[in-house]
Amino acid sequence: MSSPASRPVPPAAASLLNLRGAVDLSTLKQRPAAPAATGVPAGTGASAGNGPEGAQAGGPELRVDVTEANFQQLVELSAQVPVVFALWAPYSPESTGMLETLDRVVASYGGRLVLGAADIDAFPQLAQAFQVQAVPTAVAVLKGQPVPLFQGSADEQQVRSLFDELLKVAAANGVTGSLNAGAAGEPEPAPLPPLHQAAFDAIEAGDYEAAAGFYRQALNEMPSDHDAKAGLAQVELMARLQPLSAQDSEALRTLAADEPDNVEAQLGVADLDVAGGHVEDALNRLVAFIGRNFGPERETARVRLLELFDVVGASDERVGKARQALARVLF
């Protein structure tokens, strides 16, 4: 069932930050099982007999076999740590490799992530809720909202890159827990700078304007604070997206298609594309607009493009390509 063309598509930070969620998981809610001491649903630790042959658990506290009975508890756990759902099927040869890789990588993060392995033959409602089109598929859940990660196979380096980005954005949304935080010998995480902590607290409360204010204050005090600069770009994107309904988004896309030189429409669709993980589409859209327009609209688009570079991350190769394309159209 896995599409030969499917490949890992690393999401932009903003795709994780748009936590308003297009997928409704509420229909899958079941009575939660009694919680285990580790915070993971009781009685669900993986064993050699669970999942495709050869997929071994990274540890009973970090790998859970997803059922209708424990699904809601895992969703609730995503307010503490991101939960990565690996949706697999017995008929998919790629499923074994994906689960083995995810087991190994999740275990290496020391309790900052949890893996939920879900056999979609046994739990078909989950595949429907996550709008899965091929297996295997990996989807994270953060604060109860799904975040697509990839379909098909992925090597360990790609998975680590995705998880590193996931954890950064989890922190930006106030999800900074660890299931091993109290374990002996585990160092306590370093406290955040006060203004960064205040910004994260504001994000947790849904007050993006206040969060942006704290990040601006941090930048006033230390203009070289790259984390504050990225955080400011992310919360400003979140604030722009927050009021948009699905109908608003569709209307905006229609307007942008009908009016390619409407700067506000092009900026809005670029926001939506970054938030949806279509980073190259978003960046290319703004570069093209800048290339064919002049005057204040061109500068407005250039400034927004630089902000989206901060959202996606300076080290992302798609940002590097877009910077080169921007230089070509400007000079």
Give the key terms.
single chain; 331 residues; alpha/beta; Glutaredoxin; Serine Threonine Protein Phosphatase 5, Tetratricopeptide repeat; 3 domains; five-stranded mixed beta sheet; 13 helices; 8% strand; disordered N terminus
How would you sum up this structure, described in words?
The protein has 331 residues and is of the alpha/beta class. It has 3 domains: 13-172, Glutaredoxin (3-Layer(aba) Sandwich), CATH 3.40.30.10; 194-241, no CATH class; 246-330, Serine Threonine Protein Phosphatase 5, Tetratricopeptide repeat (Alpha Horseshoe). Helix content is 49%, strand content 8%. The chain contains 13 helices and 5 strands. The protein has helices spanning 13-17, 71-77, 93-108, 124-129, 156-172, 194-204, 208-221, 226-241, 246-258, 263-275, 279-292, 296-312, 317-330, and strands at 63-65, 83-88, 114-119, 137-142, 145-151. It has a 5-stranded mixed β-sheet, with helices on both faces. Strand 2, helix 3 and strand 3 (114-119) form a beta-alpha-beta unit. The longest helix has 17 residues, at 156-172. The radius of gyration is 21 Å and the shape is globular.
The counted number of beta strands is 5
Class from helix and strand fractions: alpha/beta
The string of secondary-structure elements, in order, is: HEHEHEHEEHHHHHHHHH
CATH overall fold name of the largest domain: Glutaredoxin
How would you characterize the largest beta sheet?
A: 5 strands, mixed
Name the strands of the widest sheet in spatial order.
1-3-2-4-5
Query: Spans with pLDDT under 50 lasting ≥5 residues?
Result: 1-60, 182-186
- Taken together, the total number of domains comes to 3
CATH architecture of the largest domain: 3-Layer(aba) Sandwich
Write down the overall geometry: globular
**Number of H/I helices:** 13
Task: Average the pLDDT over all residues and give the rounded result.
Answer: 79
Q: Return the CATH class of the largest domain.
A: Alpha Beta
Give the N-to-C terminal Cα separation: 47 Å
Strand fraction equals 5-15%
CATH superfamily of the largest domain: Glutaredoxin
Q: What is the radius of gyration?
A: 21 Å
Helix content: 40-55%
